[in-house]
Design goal:
This protein is an alpha+beta fold. It has three helices and four strands. About 40% of the residues lie in helices and about 20% in strands. It is globular, with a radius of gyration of 12 Å.
Length: about 80
């Protein structure tokens, strides 16, 4: 099973869409709320160079934003039409 980590904020529409996508496809993931967790926020910036969310890591592959097709490809799931 691939390790899935998402750096997100509660009010981010794309973060919530990504988490819903994971749930619909039975993908377990770790969620870090970077609005509250300053250490994880800095970790996200250091790893990705990004300040916007979501930043998603699937194993060592980084996806910035909710790119459903790329996430599906990395996770080996079909994209629902």
């Amino acid at each position: 099973m691939k390790k899935v980590v998402i750096y997100s904020t509660p009010s981010c529409v794309y973060c919530n869409a990504a988490k819903q996508f994971f749930a619909q496809n039975a993908i377990q993931f770790e969620n870090y709320n970077v609005a509250e967790d300053l250490e994880k926020r800095q970790e996200m910036i250091d790893k990705s160079g990004q300040m916007g969310v979501p930043v998603i890591f699937i194993d060592d592959e980084m996806v910035v934003g909710f790119d459903k097709e790329r996430l599906s490809e990395l996770l080996g799931v079909k994209v629902a039409e």
